[in-house]
Amino acid sequence: MIARIALLALLFMSMLYDLREREVPMLLTITGLVGSGLYAILNGLWAPALLTAVLTLVSDFNHRAIRLAIAMISSVVASFVQPGGVLICATLLGVWVLWEFGILGGADVKFLIAAVFVLGNPAVLIPISLAGGIQGVIASVQKKKEIPFVVSIFCGTLLFALYPYLSCFLGKV
User: Fold this and answer.
1) Which residues contact 159 (CB under 8 A, 6 or more apart)?
2) pTM
3) DSSP-assigned letter for residue 123
4) CA 106 to chain centre
5) What is the pLDDT of residues 73-96, one digit of tens each?
6) What dihedral angle (degrees, nearest 10) is formed by the CA atoms of 19, 121, 87, 113?
């Protein structure tokens, strides 16, 4: 519960930066990634946490083909050594590839990984994607080319984190 509150507080602060300055301070993104990685290790998700470290290191290699190959091999190895983390490893690889091809920014990727680690479920990406879609439609109507995606990450993560508590008010779903 404390980790969820800390994650939501971090995402809220980062969202404010993203809205005001269109950039999130590296201190916030690194704190979120490292903190959530340690939390994942403490909760038994050591292979996905190690995969995140490998993907971070691989990001500095020169050739994209080499980066992608190492990322794929590392993801497969991490999935084999910790079969319970296959879905999380696949999610980490997918999010990293989106960053690799310039679809997502570095802060966005770090926060998505942090949300998956703290909540322990890649399904958190569903409400984040829905929030991003709504935000994208609004931006399209306003003729904006970019959106501050940390807003969607915060809103989707908040919805996912609160859903178990809200479902008792909404009835059995």
Assistant:
1) 127, 131
2) 0.91
3) G
4) 10
5) 999 999 999 999 999 999 999 999
6) 30
